[in-house]
Design brief:
- It holds the Pfam family Hist_deacetyl.
- This is Histone deacetylase domain-containing protein.
- GO terms for molecular function: histone deacetylase activity.
- InterPro entries: HDACs, His_deacetylse_dom, His_deacetylse_dom_sf, Ureohydrolase_dom_sf.
- It is built from 24 helices and 21 strands.
- The chain has 733 residues and is of the alpha/beta class.
- Strands 2-1-3-8-7-4-5-6 form an 8-stranded parallel sheet, sandwiched between helices. A 6-stranded mixed sheet has the order 11-16-10-21-20-19.
- The longest helix has 20 residues.
- The chain binds zinc ion.
- The site of zinc ion has 7 residues, from loops.
């Protein structure tokens, strides 16, 4: 049954608290400000001391002072850090990685340390990094061992650098060693005597614990549960594997659970919903021997209800054996208050839990349902068939899969018009800033509420399917690294939350590309020649500077032969979850079905072709509000556009008619998939012909990129390629 029925530890709980100033030695090399700074630990420590976490004798702060009980001697059991032994770290990290992390602070790296740091994603090193990293990993081992052995009931390890982004052979996202993973592996593999056979890792840092997930992806002894911001794969670390579809592999299948938020507005209510409807039933079924919490406090929650509620629930499992290890959290006051609040819960202090005023977002219920369906299906392939989605709407009974309560909550949510109104006011955002699903669903809800409903049933399904297209490039995108900038983001990483990093993908970039929302590389590359004339106009681009811009004459001319490099990418990717509503108005006889359901099902799309189109036409604004990337709301190319083009060969996109690449051209089919490219409209060709627009032959650097593409693509050798480009540039139109 629910955790409410379980008794939390009594007030006499022995709670370990590990703090060690030595972990503050890891800092930026030249003292520049950085979110992951030593003061994070100090601010928490100061807070816990100032509050005394009451005294060891259970006295109030005032009484403790009166009786001169030293405040530092808190109710928690103070622990000191210990360095992790290599062999323990080696169970989750490569030897090369361990060696580098151990040596990076030594003298021999004095001149190269910064350069090495820059090779990683969001990493810095200084002379204290090695020791801090070893202590952080060792400290989590230390507390986990004491909790596992029963010496302590629970413990909090105040450690840094954090760990959950660190991968087997790589430091990333401020993390050097994966502290929690090292400790979990230690308990399972080094200390069988402690009897820990199953470990639940709860990662509530706002970022996905990519490292931890990978380390135990095939291991059924570790159930990794991560709730994090996902934003359709664009939020750090922006790897697709943070989605709910990643449920583990082989023996570990079903032991990896991601609850990926669609947007950054999720708050306490949403987290609590995730605990109640996913974490709790899952933990119940898994029945762990110990719970390790990757406790990041960077979710920006308004109060601590979600953390406290989470801890309280978890205390109901594994006889309350909980180990909390600090991960992220960069607001000094907020992390100090959050850790303090969690410590009090572990200590058994009474606290009244007030339900947050806000209701979970509609998308939260949808995400939770998808997670539960995946978790219960245990098979991705079962639900991957998009034809099935279009063909039928009767599918999995969600209410059964996700629990009756959830079904009821969702039903209530749908019918309660006030919910969303209240949410949009209290979150301080206007309705149009809400994710579109909420708004759309809300209008649906109004329809429902305005009629008398006899029966309302929900059927939904989750799909992870992609619809592909060949994007044909004839200009500098023929060189793959250049093209990849539009998919994976160029020059600077796409993840602005953290320090910018250089992907170094393509030289000559003036303005960084933001990449596609779906950063998966093209699944295939293929070359072809087409009967269209290649020409060069426009002397410079905002993105790439001076050099000439390639176009393909939309008119077919069988005397011409231009090379195209085709990348297989998506133009629709229902990479997410869609709820299909079946509204049966039995009394009035109204049945919504067919097209209505399909329209609803395509709310969320990740489409690479459209993202390339946006970027080529500079329709994507970077550094928008909140430092996020802003792109147009709706895709320009969808199924009906592709259908139109198959007959009409070209489509001039009215909404972007003044942009250079506003004309999408249909170049036939390959493997039964349409080949599309983007070029100038015919009206521009007329202007080039008449001289109203000047032609602009490629500059040396631009020509070099074109040649590189053709040579690396094995179409022509360097001399032939130069000849091909020169001839296209020299001939009159
Ligand atoms: Zn984080």
């Amino acid at each position: 049954m629910a955790a409410a029925a379980r008794a939390p530890p009594t007030a006499a709980a022995r709670v370990g608290l590990l703090y060690d100033e030595r972990m503050c030695a890891h800092a930026t090399p030249d003292g520049e400000d950085h979110p992951e700074k030593p003061d994070r630990l100090r601010s928490i420590w100061r807070k816990l001391n100032a509050e005394g976490v009451a005294s060891r004798y259970g006295l109030s702060l005032a009484s403790a002072r009166r009786l001169r009980v030293p405040l530092l001697d808190s109710r928690c059991v103070a622990l000191k850090a210990k360095e992790a032994k290599d062999k323990y770290i080696a169970s989750v990290h490569s030897q090369t990685h361990i060696k580098l992390m151990k040596d990076i602070s030594s003298k021999k790296y004095d001149s190269s340390r910064d350069k090495i740091a820059r090779k990683f994603n969001s990493i810095y090193f200084n002379k204290g990094s090695s020791e801090s990293a070893l202590l952080a990993a060792g400290s989590v081992i230390e507390v986990a061992e004491k909790v596992a052995s029963g010496e302590l009931n629970s413990a909090i390890a105040l450690v840094r650098p954090p760990g959950h982004h660190a991968e087997h052979g790589e430091a990333m996202g401020f993390c050097l060693f994966n502290n929690v993973a090292v400790a979990a592996s230690y308990l399972l593999n080094e200390r069988p005597d402690l009897g820990i056979k199953k470990i639940l890792i709860v990662d509530w840092d706002v970022h996905h614990g990519n490292g931890t997930q990978k380390m135990f992806y095939k291991d059924p002894r570790v159930l990794f549960f991560s709730v994090h911001r996902f934003d359709y794969g664009t939020f750090y670390p922006a790897e697709g594997d943070a989605s709910h579809c990643f449920i583990g592999e082989e023996a570990g299948k079903g032991y990896n659970i991601n609850v990926p938020w669609e947007h950054g507005k999720c708050g306490d209510a949403d987290y609590i919903a995730a605990w109640d409807h996913v974490l709790l039933p899952v933990a119940e079924a898994f029945d762990p021997d110990i719970v390790l919490v990757s406790a990041g406090f960077d979710a920006g929650l308004n109060d601590f209800s979600a953390y406290l509620h989470g801890i309280l629930q978890l205390l109901g499992f594994a006889q309350g054996r909980i180990v909390m290890a600090l991960e992220g959290g960069y607001n000094l006051r907020s992390i100090a208050n959050s850790v303090f609040a969690c410590a009090k819960v572990l200590l058994g202090d009474k606290f009244t839990f007030t339900s947050p005023e806000m209701q979970p977002f509609e998308s939260t219920w949808r995400v939770i349902q998808a997670v539960m369906l995946y978790a219960s299906s245990g098979s991705e392939s079962d639900i991957e068939d998009v034809d099935e989605l279009y063909g039928t709407v009767s599918s999995v009974d969600v209410t059964q899969a996700a629990g009756d309560v959830l079904g009821e909550r969702l039903l209530k949510m749908k019918l309660d018009e006030d919910n969303l109104a209240m949410k949009s006011i209290s979150s301080g955002s206007s309705a149009e800033q809400l994710p579109s699903d909420s708004v759309e669903e809300h209008s649906k809800a109004s329809v429902v509420a305005s009629k008398r409903i006899v029966d309302l049933s929900f059927t939904w399904r989750s799909v992870s399917s992609r619809i592909y297209v060949w994007y044909a490039s004839f200009g500098s995108n023929m060189w793959k690294p250049r093209f990849l900038c539009y998919i994976q983001g160029g020059k600077r990483g796409r993840n602005k939350l953290f320090v910018c990093f250089d992907l170094g993908q393509a030289d000559g970039m003036n303005i960084p590309c933001c990449g596609s929302r779906d950063p998966s590389p093209p699944s295939e590359t293929m070359w072809k020649a087409v009967p269209h004339r290649l020409l060069f106009g426009r002397a410079s681009t905002p993105c790439w500077g001076t050099g000439g811009v390639a176009f393909l004459n939309p008119e077919i001319n069988y005397n011409e032969k231009s090379y195209i490099c085709m990348y297989k990418i998506t133009y629709v990717s229902c990479n997410y979850i869609y709820m299909l509503l079946i509204l049966e108005f039995k009394q009035s006889g109204i049945v919504l079905g067919g097209p209505d359901l399909i329209r609803l099902s395509l709310f969320n799309r990740l489409e690479q072709f459209n993202d390339v189109l946006f970027q080529e036409n500079r329709l994507v604004l970077e550094d928008g509000k909140d430092g996020n990337i802003e792109s147009p709301d709706s895709p320009l190319i969808g199924s009906s556009e592709v259908e139109f083009m198959a007959t009409n060969k070209a489509l001039h996109l009215e909404p972007i008619k003044d942009s250079w690449y506003s004309n999408v051209l249909y170049l036939g089919k390959e493997d039964d998939l349409p080949i599309l490219t983007m070029t100038c409209p015919s009206s521009d060709i007329e202007k080039y012909t008449s001289g109203e627009l000047p032609l602009a032959p490629p500059s040396k650097t631009y020509a070099a990129t074109l040649i590189r593409g053709l040579v690396e693509g094995k179409q022509l050798d360097a001399v032939e390629a130069a000849g091909y480009i020169n001839s296209a540039a020299a001939r009159v139109l």
